[in-house]
Amino acid sequence: MGKTTGKLALGTVIAAAAGYVGGVLTAPKSGKETRKDIKKSALKAKNEAEKKLKLAHKELTELSEKAKKQGTKVSTKAKAELNGLLEKAQTAKTRASELLSAAHEGEAENEDLQKAINEAKKASDHLKKFLTDAKKADK
What we know:
By secondary structure, the chain is mostly helical.
């Protein structure tokens, strides 16, 4: 998923959530019903963030493996760069795993999940760029 597509998807989700919350708050329902609807929406948003984080974790794992294989073919300077990228990817994967565990325990905030998604996507983008550049250098 490219940067623009990711930002557009995130913007769409945020706009939809804001519209939904606005509609819920202005609807003629009792406070109890409104709170129940808000809780349901928050849970849905959290579940959606968990799904995105799982996908980001999986993508990082796959990209890390590809980059490690490619790393045997690159120069010493490129290997140093790759090692730094792999370290950042591993940190993002670890953070994603920790937050997914916390989310299952009900201890993760949506904001933390979104931050981990962004970190994982950033690490993935860097690995993709490295792989693309390495492929170009091979030709």
